[in-house]
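Hey, can you fold this one?
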Amino acid sequence: MSVEYVLVEIAGWTGALLILAGYALLTMGRLNGQSALYQAMNVVGAAGFIVNGWYHGAIPSVALNIIWMMIGAVALSRILKRRRTAAAA
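Sure. Predicted structure:
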């Protein structure tokens, strides 16, 4: 097993754990969809899936996770912008 393979697998499993943990916390009411932490978990988790999927040639998974990551990144950006605006006021 190469170091590259191990790192790709770590990225994939970390991504899976982040997305699952985020969803579990959302479902339990510990986070909400407008939480920066929830959106960051989705962005980083999707990035891990992208790395793993690309390495393994799973292009549909890569495409889905690029879109998933973009949605999370836009939401996170809006949340952080609202925080900056509120802090400045």
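Residues 59-88 form the longest helix (30 residues). Let me know if you want another pass with a different chain boundary.
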